[in-house]
Amino acid sequence: MNDAPPPRDYRQTVFLPQTPFPMKGDLPKREPAMLARWAQQDLWRKLRDGAAARPKFVLHDGPPYANGPLHIGHALNKILKDVINRAAQMSGYDADYVPGWDCHGLPIEWKVEEEYRAKKKNKDEVPVLEFRAECRAYAAHWLEVQREEFARLGVAGDWANRYATMDFPSESVIVEEIGRFLMNGSLYRGLRPVMWSPVEKTALAEAEIEYHDHVSPTLWARFPIVSGPEAGASVVIWTTTPWTIPGNRAVAYGPEIDYALVHVEGVAEGSHLRVGETLLVALPLLPKFAEDAGLGAHSLHRVLKGAELEGAIAAHPLRGAGYDFDVPLLPGDFVTTEAGTGFVHIAPGHGEDDFNLGRAHGLPVPETVNDDGTFTHHAPGFEGLHVFRAHEAVYAACETAGTLVAKSKLTHSYPHSWRSKKPVIFRATPQWFIAMDDSNAIRQKSLDAIAATTFIPDVGRNRIGGMVASRPDWCISRQRAWGVPIAVFVEKRTSEVLRDPDVMARIVDAFRSEGADAWYQPDAAARFLGNTRNPDDYEQVMDIVDVWFESGSTHAFVLPPRNLPFPADLYLEGSDQHRGWFQSSLLESVGTRGVAPFKAVLTHGFVLDEGGRKMSKSLGNVTAPQEVIAKYGADILRMWVMNSDTAEDLRIGKNILEQQAELYRRIRNTLRWLLGNLAGFDGHERVPVAEMPELERWVLHRLTELDARVRRAVRSHDWNGVLPEIHNFCATDLSAFYFDIRKDSLYCDAKDSLRRRSARTVLDSLHRCLCAWLAPVLVFTAEEAWTARFGEGAGSVHLQLFPELPENWRDDALAAKWAEIRRLRKLVTGSLEDHRRDGTFGSSLQAAVTLTLAPEDAAATLDAATWAETLIVSKVTLAEGAETSLDVALAPGHKCDRCWKVLEEVGQSAAHPTLCRRCEAVVGP
């Protein structure tokens, strides 16, 4: 009969992790509840109150447009802003973030007009105030939709007191800013060619233009020289806009270009050239011209410099058909020999270079094109015809006049309206401009401000600098109804704009209480001009201001009025805003205040699909943030942003999101392991750093390195690489190394052992640091991990500051030593894995290792017991040798039923014959 006691079950004596923090995030369900709790706690107000005495940090929000649900680019932008704001707040600043919206302009007006068209109503028959009210309602609806969607992303901000360009106080300040330019003399009305959308019937800014391939008809035409040098010959021009021929008033040549005087002696079949005629074409372009025009045998009479053509007068190619005026040949420094014929036909109303050359030589600027793109009566023979359908008529007219040389087609990049996606034209119309180079010197002041601004990345400096250096005067007028009017008066008798501070003050005061609609009331002119002026003597300007001017002036009605510092610390938008909001904000602020409205400018890339293609509904490759949140949760979307290089274009799609979800699970598991092994921890367990084992002190050193990385990102606003470093720390330094080593001590050591208490002291610091560092990015998960330990009564993690780590945690020498230890450990664990695969043993705890260290590896000095902990084996024997080597064998002894180490001491205890000495002491009698 066997009297041996039955085997004991020691599982209940092991200190296994305990935590309510679940392994599964279930973010789509948990996040809305957390948002509701934050709202109920009024967390935003607590943040502001708690930071009231701190220095301000202001990231001024570039306003998104209120005309539809958010897209993935919106999510990227707002998440990046939120991370920077939250991190600044947790670094000891008062990061008061005021989100805003751009609510005026053509896209909203266009949508309301579409609703009219669907109802068979004519927008022009609707009273302007009624139309503006519908635009306001449309913008208000989408503003609210977007506000809820931004908040669902976890973006913290003063949502209750957001700004909008259509708010009455905003409209008041916008018109006041226009008045500043009026009073300092930089605002003027002039006739100049601007980008014009015939579809939308308004001028457009460069920022409202995008370029697409377009097939343009091309024309080669004769301009017979009727007097002056080379009379009797014909100049040949080439153009990709045949419709501009009715507006032609000159021909430009390059003074230093060599021109060939060519006598035509033979032509190809179908050519419009005539044998016996004499033509002038740039010499370098003659071979290509011969090919295009069907020029056969010819002789070169002579070569002359363009300057020799000074004083020559040509006939318009449509002479005899209502164009019976002379066309002078003029020198132009913009003429090149890159394409065409070396001669440029000049239509002063339809091109920047054309206009400038015409103005320099007193050429007329005929208004040949209406607002809708049809020809006016100033284009005889083409009146009522749309310019984009005029080429065949121009070809026919030239052929009738005997001036057609050739015609063709060309596919090239051409400007389109980014709203209607339709091609635009250059069209000279009376517009309102802000001068770049008058006594206010906006251009030079802006360039100086750019030099003094921090750009992240720095390449942005050259980009915006080049644009400002070369841009023309700022056209700020639009011929639409939904916006802030350029509220000025022009005296009819003198055509002079009225500059009266009292008039402007009355307008500003009215807009503040009534909004811009006050300008459209029947008695507006009399009301604002006052009793001393007759409204009949003045033109009330009805153009509205460019929406880029409005958004560019947001600093004026968001920062000082809310007691926020000016200039703002940071502007942050997509890289396309160097020509958009960054530039309009710079010009507006420099023009009115002499300084930039920002200290630093950060740009991010665009979002593409997984294959690097632009997203479009037609391709079916659109990733909607709403769908991502519904499936994965906002924290996964935020993680995608911060795991990306935001300075470049980002990619997103199903596979990339799955990868982010996997990375998230690793971080979540790290937090869960920490929480589980901190169960019951309190301050009484803490161990001073000096008494800790080296491994714990190494972990604290790593925390100081990450702390420095986070704080460097706060200072520079550059967060690229920070989250990947934190993830790598969790996955490599902690889960695969420190946790792997210390789980034995945490599970099996006595509760009050120095090693276990040291480990739990470090876990406490890890939890506090990781929750804080992750809080700006994984806003929901960090909160969950914080409250899982401390409870909701302890306050939100977002009310915390980043931990201040003691200087004595940093130990570069220890870090170097443990880098060597980890290198050697990798060699050993690789060998152990080979033995495990070979079936030598199933667990590394069944192994005994003899580690021979060469002199150069002697710096990695640990005692045998610590090496055994580090390698997670049951026994290590140390030796010295000429080369580092190791020998792996089965560990002698028996397996401990509690810690699973194989030790020779197992079996020596009468009370606990299946335990090692350590476990016996923990279990007790």
Automatic annotation (TrEMBL):
Keywords: Aminoacyl-tRNA synthetase, ATP-binding, Cytoplasm, Ligase, Metal-binding, Nucleotide-binding, Protein biosynthesis, Zinc. It comes from the Bacteria. Residues 34-652 form the Aminoacyl-tRNA synthetase class Ia domain. The keyword Oxidoreductase does not apply. Residues 696-848 form the Methionyl/Valyl/Leucyl/Isoleucyl-tRNA synthetase anticodon-binding domain. GO terms for cellular component: cytosol. Zn(2+) binds at C896, C899, C916, C919. Pfam families: Anticodon_1, tRNA-synt_1, zf-FPG_IleRS. GO terms for molecular function: aminoacyl-tRNA deacylase activity; ATP binding; isoleucine-tRNA ligase activity; tRNA binding; zinc ion binding. Its main location: cytoplasm. The keyword Transmembrane helix does not apply. A motif ('HIGH' region) lies at residues 64-74. ATP binds at K617. Binds 1 zinc ion per subunit. Its cofactor is Zn(2+). It is an enzyme of class 6 (ligase). Residues 893-921 form the Zinc finger FPG/IleRS-type domain. It catalyses: tRNA(Ile) + L-isoleucine + ATP = L-isoleucyl-tRNA(Ile) + AMP + diphosphate. GO terms for biological process: isoleucyl-tRNA aminoacylation. Its EC number is 6.1.1.5. A motif ('KMSKS' region) lies at residues 614-618. IleRS has two distinct active sites: one for aminoacylation and one for editing. The misactivated valine is translocated from the active site to the editing site, which sterically excludes the correctly activated isoleucine. The single editing site contains two valyl binding pockets, one specific for each substrate (Val-AMP or Val-tRNA(Ile)). Monomer. Belongs to the class-I aminoacyl-tRNA synthetase family. IleS type 1 subfamily. This is Isoleucine--tRNA ligase. The gene is ileS.
